[in-house]
Amino acid sequence: MVQDYRELRSEGVDVVRVAIRANRYRSHTAGLGAGVLQTNLVILPESFALDFMRFCQRNPKPCPLVGVSDTGDPALFTLGRDIDIRTDVPGYNIYRDGRLSETRPDIRDYWTRDMVAFALGCSFTFERALQEAGIPVWHIDNDTTVPMFRSNIDTVPAGPFRGKMVVSMRSIDADAVEAAIEISRRFPLAHGAPVYWGDPARIGIADIGRPDWGDPAPVGAGQVPVFWACGVTPQVALEAAGVPLCITHSPGHMLITDVPEDAESPIIRPSDT
Question: Which residue among 76, 116, 174, 225 is least crowded, i.e. fewest CB within 10 A of its CB?
């Protein structure tokens, strides 16, 4: 039985995760799992893991690293007591030699003993704080995926990983932009404050109505397009690196953790004993 987005918005993280694991929910996760950290996902062979970790360390705005699995272990126990990285994301992208090959609802058939999973903080986490402050988030209110764009902002390379930063966009009323900046700044594990706001052309975006990922969102009269660093940035770096086989989340389809969204550290206890 397929479960509805609006139904799951009122449920806790355990219910949402069960629905995703059972393939009853395969859409975006914006607005789900209220109060906990959502993360982007990158899975790649151990031989590339150290260079990718360096890439994250050098680019903390688009790649805020919050969790790393043990090699070959699909459990991310530092982010949740019952997380299976092979099944607990609504959609996975499979890349072969740097090219998107397919999108799948789970990756049990692809997981191998040499794989390492990286969890990177996601901007969906601070959106609830924006809404609580009275700042509307259009893609949540309209059940769509946040628009994401390739920018002209360079990342700092590490080994084979390099490329331009991906940014996500939210239209903010001009008189609320300063508040949105200060609110999101409180969530450094979720990209923190925006990297730019104003004319999209200044960061290499030719058409705000045609995102590279996600769905278009309007910029209304009296609104300003505000851009945050985005966790799809590693997918651009993976394309450049040409890794023989790697796996990411499908943009907008995140891992929902057990970590409180306002935690100063992502680490949680793996047991109560």
Answer: 174
